[in-house]
Amino acid sequence: MSNVEKLKLAAEKLGVFLTSFQLDQFELYYRELIEWNQRVNLTSITDYTGVQLKHFLDSLTVAAAIKNIKKNLKMADIGTGAGLPGIPLKIVFSDIHLALIEATLKKTRFLDQLISKLNLKNVEIIRERAETVAHDTRYRERFDIVVSRAVAALPALAEIMLPFCNIGGCCIAQKKGDIGREVEQSKKAIEVMGGSLREIKSIDLVELNDNRCLVIIDKIQPTPSPYPRRPGIPDKRPVIS
Questions:
Q1: I need a labelling partner for 166 at 20 to 30 A (CA). Which of 76, 101, 173, 202 fits?
Q2: Which has the closest alpha carbon to 191: 234, 220, 157?
C-alpha cells in the first residue's frame, strides 16, 4: 500500500473521502513544504509518511468535530505555521472561507506561495499576533469555527481563540497526551471568554497512535472587550482562578 493510499484510507475512518484531485493537492503540498523547509523552519517532520500522517491526517481529524459544513462557513486557524490544520481542511472543504493567522513573515510567504500553487480561493493570510488581530472588528467574533494545533496551553488558547468565534460557533483545539489537568485549569478562562466546554473527543486511529484528542468549546456569550490581553500575557499569566 502506498503512503497516499494510507492517507486516503485513514481519512475515510474520519468520514472524509478524498478524491484523486484532493490527493494530488496533498502531494503538491508535501513537495512545497519540503522545498521551503530547506530555508524556512516549517517542520521537523520531513519524511513522506510522517508528513502524510502526522501533519495532513492529523489536520483532518478536526473534521470529526464538524457536523455540518455550510456554504460560505468562515474558519480561522490560529498560529497556523505551515498551514496546519487550516489548509488540509480547506482542501477537503473547498467552500469554506479561511483566515490563516501567523505572525512570522517567512512562514506567511510560504503560505502565500502554497495557496497560489494549490489554486485555493477565499483564503486570507493575516501576518500579526492573534492577540492583536482579535481586537480588529473585521475579525472579532466573525468566525463560525476557530481551530488551533498545539500552539499553547488550553487556558491561553481559550483566551486567544474564543474572541474570534461568533456566538453559536465553536473552537476546536488539537491536543495529545494526558490533558486532564490542563482542561481543569482552562475552565475559568473558557467561562470568562464566553465559552462552554462541549466535549473532549478522542481520536482513535492506529495511524496516529499517540492519544490525540480534540477539545471542543462552544461560544455562548460575547467575549469581554479587554480580552485577549496583549501578546504573550495569556501564556505568562493565564486566567485560571
A1: 202
A2: 220
CA dihedral over 130, 198, 152, 214, signed as positive or negative: negative
C-alpha cell at 43: 517542520
User: What's 189-216 look like in SS3?
Assistant: HHHHCCEEEEEEEECCCHHHCCCEEEEE
Domain assignment of residue 76, yes or no = yes
pLDDT band of residue 241 (cuts 50, 70, 90) is low
Domain holding 230: CATH number? 3.40.50.150
**Half-sphere exposure in the Cβ direction for 76 (13 Å, CA):** 27
Give residue for cell 485513514: 10
What is the rounded CA–CA span in Å between residue 158 and residue 25? 32
Query: What's the pLDDT at 5?
Result: 81
Give residue 219's domain range. 68-236
Q: What is the mean pLDDT of residues 19-42?
A: 97
* pTM score of the predicted model: 0.95
CB 214 within 8 A of CB 145: no
DSSP letter for 120, please.
-
Hey, what's the cell of 135?
481586537
Whether residue 178 is predicted with pLDDT greater than 60 in this model: the reply is: yes
Q: 129 in a domain, yes or no?
A: yes
Q: Are 239 and 188 in contact (CB under 8 A)?
A: yes
What confidence score (pLDDT) does residue 1 get?
A: 56
